[in-house]
Every structure is written in C-alpha cells, then in structure tokens.
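Quick one, probably user error.
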C-alpha cells in the first residue's frame, strides 16, 4: 500500500484535514506526493495539500479546476461530450499517480465532495476511485446523520468493487451523540475505524497526525 484515496461521506466532513495530516506524516518517512484530481470553488484545499507534501504548483496537484463552488458536472454537463472530457482527465490523473508510484513516493489522493459527486457525463467520484484502484479511506463527520451517510457510502463503494480499508471519523467530541455514533460505526462498518479529536490545539493536531500514521502502517501490514 503506497497510495491511499481519501474520500468522504459528503463535502465539508474533513477530507482535506485528514489528507494533509497524513501527507505530513508520510513526508517524515520519506518521499510523498499528493493529488486532488478534481477541485472546485477555490484552490485552498489543493494548495494546503500541496504544502503538506512540499509541492508548490497547483497544476501538479489538480488536473481539472472548476471556479464555481459546485460539482464539476454542474458546469460540464451530463452529456456524452462531458463524459469524454472527464474520462480524459481521469486518465491524465491516473498517469500522474502511476508515475509517482514508480518514483517510489507514497501518494495521498483527495477526492471531491461525496462518493457519488458527479464529475461530468455519467461519471462520479466513485468511478475515479475505481479507475485508480488504490485502497480508500472514507472520512465521516461525528454528528447526527453520520450513521446513514457512512453506511450508505460504504455500501455504494463495496457494490462498485472499490476497496475501503478504513473509516476515519473527523473531529470527534465528547457528546453522547458523537460517542454513540462512533461506537455504532465500530460495530457495523466491518472496517477499522479511526477517531480524530477536534483540532483545538497543536497537541491535538500532532496526536491526529500520529493516529493517521499508525493507521497507514496497520493497513500496509493488513495488505502484505
């Protein structure tokens, strides 16, 4: 396992936070590369991810950027031409992934939105993950709604033949709702669950980075 695809149950659940912290941890071990093939709204997430890996050029991280803060399909459309365009972009991103893996780097890939976020034509983020064929971590929020969103996302990915290795619940507090959700997810998900605390201090950030590094190491062992 030299690459991992970070996806989410929805937008704003903490994908970038998890991807950045993991990239920082892997960079301490040696070479690390990052990709966020599709991005929209602004470049902040991709640039933050690049900074974690020491990559400055936005174009080295992202193959298609949509200036509007919407799913790419809202701009590209859902027709045949849009599908062909997105397929070309997926192939370009896949080639970049292969090149970086051949160089010996570990690669952290971040998705866009949720697992079925439309990219263009009939293609979704799930198709991107299927094409990349690397292990996936699903990031979820800890609060109300996460049980349904997490289980639905896992079901969709399994149905499509995408290998999910871990659920990461980002920003877990001490409320009954958050703790009970975490307990239920650990019983029902059939994959390891990593809980990250709310990043209220540098200490919490370092703790989270170590948790993700440990999770990556464990998943490598499970695949060996």
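Nope, works fine. Designed sequence:
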């Amino acid at each position: 396992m030299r690459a991992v695809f970070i996806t989410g149950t929805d937008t704003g659940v903490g994908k970038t936070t998890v991807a950045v912290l993991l990239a920082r941890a892997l960079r301490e071990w040696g070479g690390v590369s990052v990709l966020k093939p599709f991005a929209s709204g602004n470049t902040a997430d991709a640039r933050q991810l690049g900074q974690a890996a020491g990559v400055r050029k936005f174009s080295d991280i992202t193959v298609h950027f949509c200036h509007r803060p919407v799913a790419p399909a809202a701009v590209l459309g859902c027709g045949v031409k849009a599908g062909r365009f997105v397929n070309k972009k997926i192939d370009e991103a896949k080639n970049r992934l292969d090149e970086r893996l051949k160089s010996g780097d570990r690669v952290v890939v971040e998705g866009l939105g949720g697992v079925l976020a439309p990219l263009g034509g009939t293609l979704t983020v799930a198709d991107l993950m299927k094409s990349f064929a690397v292990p996936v971590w699903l990031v979820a929020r800890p609060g109300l709604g996460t049980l349904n969103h997490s289980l639905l996302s896992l079901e969709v990915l399994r149905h499509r033949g995408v290998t999910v290795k871990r659920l990461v619940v980002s920003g877990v507090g001490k409320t009954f709702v958050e703790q009970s959700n975490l307990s239920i997810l650990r019983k029902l998900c059939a994959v390891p669950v990593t809980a990250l605390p709310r990043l209220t201090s540098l200490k919490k950030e370092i703790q989270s980075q170590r948790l993700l590094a440990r999770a990556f190491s464990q998943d490598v062992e499970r695949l060996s």
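The beta strands are 3-8, 32-35, 38-40, 64-66, 106-110, 118-120, 123-124, 136-140, 164-172, 193-197.
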